[in-house]
Amino acid sequence: MYKLVVPDDIRKMIRTMHPSLKKKIKSSLKMILSDPHSGKTLMDELAGLRSFKVSSFRIIYRIKSPEQIELVAIGPRERIYEETFRIIQKKIEL
Known about the structure:
The protein has a single domain, classed as YaeB-like fold (2-Layer Sandwich), CATH 3.30.2310.20. The protein has three helices and five strands. A five-stranded mixed sheet has the order 1-5-4-3-2. The model has no long low-confidence stretch (mean pLDDT 93). By secondary structure, it is an alpha+beta fold.
């Protein structure tokens, strides 16, 4: 079974979501944990990440090891990929 690593900023974001969206996100996270390869494989600058569709939102995550999945970002499809790229760039700069 995989362990889910959720950064504090994403945890706070989930807490503030509308209850119906929060329920869909949590259900989708359970599906990701049961089959981490179910998300779409991302390419180019986002290689190594996966995207899972939840209504008009996307959950971006990476499989860190055979036991661990790390959430990278959650947000509306319109801007999630650009936001994820910025998050990755910040981590590289650190």
